[in-house]
Amino acid sequence: MIEYVSSREFLILFAKMIVIFGGVMGALAYATLIERRIMAFVQMRPGPNRVGPFGLLQPIADGLKFLFKEQTIPGSANVLLYYAAPIVSMIPALLSFSVIPFGPDLKIADINVSLLLIFAITSLGVYGIVLGGWASNSKYPLMGAMRASAQMLSYELSLTLSVVGVLMIANTLSLNSIVQSQQGTWWGFIPRWNIFLQPVGFLVYALSGIAETNRLPFDLAESEQELVAGWHTEYSGMKFAMFFLAEYANMVTVSALATIMFLGGWNGPAFGPWWLQMILPTVWFVAKIALFLFVYMLIRATIPRIRYDQLMHFGWKVLLPIALANILVTSFLVAVL
Amino acid sequence: MIELLFLLFAAVAVGAAINVLVQKHVLYSSLSLIVLLTAISALFVLMQAEFLAVINVIVYAGAIMVLFVFVIMLLNLPPDEGGVDRLRWLKFVGIPMGLFLLFMVARTVWKVEGTSGAPDLAGTSQAIGASLFTDYLLPFELTSLLILIALMGAVVFAKKDL
Fold first, then answer.
1. Of A15, A138, A234, B69, which sits with the fewest C-beta atoms within 10 Å of its C-beta?
2. Whole-model pTM over 0.90
3. How many CB pairs under 8 A join A and B?
4. Of the candidates B1, B41, B67, which has its C-beta nearest A1's C-beta?
5. CA distance A300 to A306
């Protein structure tokens, strides 16, 4: 074991872990600031711009505030599960970054079922919300947790089914191979991305991705007007921050998966000296994810929340049949062509 | 390294399995069951059956157990206090049957000859798909038919005025 820990490959792996974990955590912290600035821009407010130049130190101020806030626990809460819930929601959210290929070489693990692994990990994320809502032992969190679990179960189906078309085209379950299958162009100018082959699958994926991460217009689990703050009403300080970070990490995971499946992952023009060629794929990947997050934030700022029965109706009677029809059509086309 | 990980996850699995039985509160039991399923998936990974491990988590820990926890929370079941007395006679049946099952499993495991690791491609999705649609086609189709019947039954129960 000691030889392994001091070996060259382990050190490289360790360096990759630090780069990816540090990059993701930093990006999550700044995603909160960027979201607030974009929402403020849409609503014609200045937004947080006082701490540091352009408000750039705001995430650090927020983090300090979370750390030093008084920890309160509801008197009738189940203490063990109340403390466990933020951890249970944080671990799956960060674990899925272990198999996402950020570049040709910048990935921690490359297993042949990495896509299914991400679905497995994200399907465990609902427990953090459910336990948080139940352990608080108060009515708004419980109702929020109920809504969240029903919603995430429903939309997980269409989320999973929407990518089956891509899997049939790429003929693999490994994220790395899916990215590699989208290299090159058609007729020299259209990139070989799956979004052009699977536009319906992409739309279904993007819509159920918003619902799966409990974001507006599908944030019924924490709709402020009815449920105060939903399942994290009774949480404060660092425990609330962990729920918050998990939500943003899930958003980044959904966007990263969308980029890998439909937008060609780290594929993009590589040019210049060798160090630029090494960095550029990661830059393209991060830029595509940022585009997705930007659209999510614009949607949050502009579209009102839908009703709960409309949400269920939309998931089961609209998205799911479309996803199934997409699979049927794609399988016929794949078999014929 | 593999042995250490095996011992760790096996210990977690056994501990969680015992916890499922001894907990009085049904929510703690089901949470222990989730831990047990995840630990078993880790054991599958150590045996190079990644597909099986991932499917185990998706189907059981991620879907079925969520429904269990959902229903427990919805009904807000109290801890199980007086239920033990009602099941007094069951332990005289349960313990011998459990021992018999243990005996059968141990006998089967004893008979299997030790091989060096999994054969190539044994646990991959390709191999599983190929054997599902060739050797085990009839059981596979029958299972899907059963699930369809169960689905239709659920719809009939839920909607009384069809």
1. A15
2. no
3. 68
4. B1
5. 12
